[in-house]
Amino acid sequence: MNRFAVFFWIVVGVFFRAVIPATVIAGDVLPADEASVTASETDTRPASQPLDSLLSLYQPYLENISAYKPIYFLVGADPSETRFQFSFRYRFLSPGLSLVKRHHWIRGFHIAYTQTSFWDLEAKSEPFEDSSYMPEVFFLSPNLVKKCCRFAEVFFQTGYQHESNGQDGDLSRSTNYFYVKPLIIFFNKKNELGVQVAPRIWTYVRNDDKTNPDLSDYRGYFDLEIKAGKADGLVFRSLFRHAGKGSSVELGMTYPLNNLLENIDLYLQIQYVNALAENLINYQERTRAFRIGFSIVR
After folding, report:
1. Residue 296 and which of 19, 28, 38, 79 are 20 to 30 A apart at CA?
2. CATH pick for 51-297 out of 3.20.20.140, 3.30.70.2740, 2.20.28.10, 2.40.230.10
3. Residue 18, exposed/middle/buried by CB under 10 A (0-12, 13-18, 19+)?
4. What would the mean pLDDT of 12-19 be, rounded to a whole number?
């Protein structure tokens, strides 16, 4: 052990002797019997704590992290069309801060990251066909009609998103979007049935004009997402997009497996896609795929 390491652990030892209460190191301060009695009378802590609880003491910002877009793993009827996605967001300022309590609207600022990958399970080496990496900065408003509508809630989201496939040369694809997206939600608390309608409009910013100059002809400038279903049951989702080269549609269905098999916190998910530019590498091609798998966020 080198000198620096010895010095480091000496400092650590001195620190703990200084900050730990005397009853914890009672053997050095009190007689054994007196120390044990004092400790038993004053120590009201539980005998043990779960590891997650202990680690959370050192991670106070974890409450700002949450799921963002759907998280799933779907195997294609054609295994070459397998697709998975994970996504999370981080809120800049937690609601408990004094600044947020004075100005509630600033809690809407977030950063987010989404990754969608296409996996060719049919090929010998099972390569990834393509992946889209999508960091994002956005603002999400509070409910804008809270006091005037009984079943409806309206939110407004706007942001800036980068998308690229992380490759180089002729295989490189990248673009950037500035978008606006209202979210209209109708929810009945009695039967827990709800509908969400979310149109989105965007413009391209600094699109890569060398490797995907005509991406807008295949992705367009508008899409419409609709979700409908029961909170603890079946939920249907549709995504419609129109572009100059044609329209695209994605249909999906999710159902909690816990309703069928106890102790399984997953959703069964089915997806059908008939879309242009589903991935960036082959954005000029139309994908027709049927997939089935599992999701943890729908």
Report:
1. 79
2. 2.40.230.10
3. exposed
4. 66
